[in-house]
């Protein structure tokens, strides 16, 4: 039985068929760098890098819809309240925030400090948010808030509030401009 010989230089078997014109026939295995291989690899690498850069830019330019961004801001505020982080909570307040009884940002921060001094454990659970967008840069959000607190690991007090809030979009961030609770 006779087996065909394997070329020593790993050239494709079609090398004798005018290799500069025969671009559609390539061997599956490794072959030496020929005309077109370096260019095609370079082109694919550049094209892939350009496509990834464009996708990254497109993802960075994609904006979160206003209602979703507002819900995310409120969720971050809820987490800050649970963590007893008044700075993180009040950072979402507008400079001209107005609360009940002429409460401003500073008074609200002092109000939180007093609550947290009285209660070693604090919990806040928000009910479903009713979001109403008013124009491109204003919103109203109404919800229930269940607040609980105590000195030990079990809550000793719990209250449910009906909360009405007003929001303004400033530099692509939602800021709380008013709040009232009963």
Q: What do these coordinates show?
A:
The protein has 182 residues and is α+β, with helices and mostly antiparallel strands. It has two domains: 1-62, no CATH class; 66-181, Roll (Nuclear Transport Factor 2, Chain: A), CATH 3.10.450.50. It has four helices and six strands. It has helices spanning 37-61, 66-82, 86-90, 105-118; strands at residues 93-98, 121-126, 130-134, 138-150, 157-170, 173-181. Strands 1, 2, 3, 4, 5 and 6 form a six-stranded mixed beta sheet that branches. The mean pLDDT is 76.
Give the tally of β-strands: 6
* Backbone CA Rg: 32 Å
N→C terminal distance? 98 Å
Order of helical and strand elements: HHHEHEEEEE
- Overall pLDDT, averaged? 76
CATH topology of the largest domain: Nuclear Transport Factor 2, Chain: A
Specify the CATH architecture of the largest domain. Roll
Question: What number of structural domains do the residues give?
Answer: 2
Low-confidence stretches: none
């Amino acid at each position: 039985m006779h087996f065909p010989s394997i070329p020593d230089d790993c050239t494709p078997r079609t090398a004798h068929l005018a290799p500069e014109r025969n671009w559609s026939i390539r061997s599956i295995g490794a072959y030496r760098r020929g005309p077109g291989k370096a260019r095609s690899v370079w082109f694919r690498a550049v094209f892939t890098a350009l496509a990834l850069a464009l996708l990254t830019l497109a993802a960075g330019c994609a904006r979160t819809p206003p209602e979703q961004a507002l819900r995310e801001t409120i969720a971050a505020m809820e987490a800050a309240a649970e963590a007893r982080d008044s700075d993180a909570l009040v950072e979402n307040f507008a400079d001209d925030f107005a609360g009940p009884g002429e409460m401003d940002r500073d008074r609200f921060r002092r109000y939180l400090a007093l609550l947290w001094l009285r209660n070693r454990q604090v919990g806040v659970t928000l009910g479903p948010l009713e979001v109403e967008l008013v124009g491109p840069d204003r919103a109203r959000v109404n919800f229930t808030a269940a607040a609980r607190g105590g000195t030990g690991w079990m809550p000793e007090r719990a209250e449910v509030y009906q909360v009405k809030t007003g929001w303004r979009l400033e530099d692509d961030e939602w800021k709380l401009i008013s709040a009232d609770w009963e």
